[in-house]
Amino acid sequence: MTAGADHRVLSVPEGLAGERVDAALARMFGLSRTRAAELIASGHVLVDGSGVGKSDRVMPGATLDVTIPSLLDPLEVVPQIVEGIKIIHDDDSIVVIDKPVGVAVHPSPGWSGPTVVGHLVAAGFRIATSGASERQGIVQRLDVGTSGVMVITKSEHGYSLLKNAFRNRTVDKTYHALVQGHPDPFEGTVDAPIGRHPKHDYKFAVMADGRHSVTHYSTLEAHRFASLLEIHLETGRTHQIRVHMSALKHPCVGDITYGADPTLARRVGLERQWLHAVRLGFLHPDSGDYVEYESTYPDDLAHALEVVRDAH
């Protein structure tokens, strides 16, 4: 990702006569050899008006025409108002939001889309400065493809108390998931360690050497093709519910990554997993009172659920 560029034209000095282009470039512009080679390979370097290879030699007096794109930091927080983020609660210590699908919580390498942190900065919220710069104030995360309620801290005091509450598992995290088929038993606990998938690094899987992961579920509604579950997370691993439901052979409807039926996903009109963070309860960092916040199903999930309810 680049933004803007530095364009320079210089003559090769006598002292660099016969040097390789990448070495000459590195010395003349104060770049690393690797960066110089990248610029040459991407066509950003011309010698006397022509493209070159990194191991070509330069002659004294030759004209080096170099464009150096400035690199954007992938972790930089870009202030941007995000359509669809709703503020559920706001006070001096915390802000509770309803996160739509397609929004990451914070910047990360490989993600150039909208973020919760970027929205809050653009909307004028002061966020706690604790945590890595791109994750300041963040005490929990929801996947890009998961919607629902989440809390961000505004005060340093709030950050430390809630960070510990999540770490010590004293926060009540309730999700609803529409899963394929009917889990047997209707109510149960999945206690299975989760680690990175050995073949696909964008996925996770139940792995013997994974991290301790516990999911409690109960069936709210059972329909012909799918069941609506209420899920309480004891631990908070990446993709935990999706991995555990897939391991039970009841993946979230629409979750093609974890083995859901694409035909059913099309039938109910889903382009993501049916998974929503419906409730979040914790001790408020200022008052010490137990507070609970809720989020209703977004339109795509509500529609899919109606289709499943109406299927006979």
Automatic annotation (TrEMBL):
What does the similarity note say? Belongs to the pseudouridine synthase RluA family.
The active site consists of 143
InterPro entries tied to this protein: PsdUridine_synth_cat_dom_sf, PsdUridine_synth_RluA-like_CS, PsdUridine_synth_RluC/D, PsdUridine_synth_RsuA/RluA, RluA_PseudoU_synthase, S4_RNA-bd, S4_RNA-bd_sf
Which Gene Ontology molecular function entries are recorded, alphabetically?
RNA binding; rRNA pseudouridine synthase activity
The alphabetized UniProt keywords are:
Isomerase, RNA-binding
Taxonomically, the superkingdom here is: Bacteria
Source species: Nocardioides ginsengisegetis
The protein's annotated catalytic reaction(s) are: a uridine in RNA = a pseudouridine in RNA
What lineage does UniProt assign to this protein's organism?
A: Bacteria, Bacillati, Actinomycetota, Actinomycetes, Propionibacteriales
| EC number assigned by the record | 5.4.99.-
Q: Is the keyword RNA-binding in the record?
A: yes
Summarizing the function annotation, the protein's role is: Responsible for synthesis of pseudouridine from uracil.
Q: From the UniProt record, give one GO term of the biological process aspect.
A: enzyme-directed rRNA pseudouridine synthesis
Q: Which residues form a coiled coil?
A: none
Q: What's the short name of a Pfam family annotated to this entry?
A: PseudoU_synth_2
Domain named RNA-binding S4 is located at 19-76
Q: What is this protein identified as?
A: Pseudouridine synthase
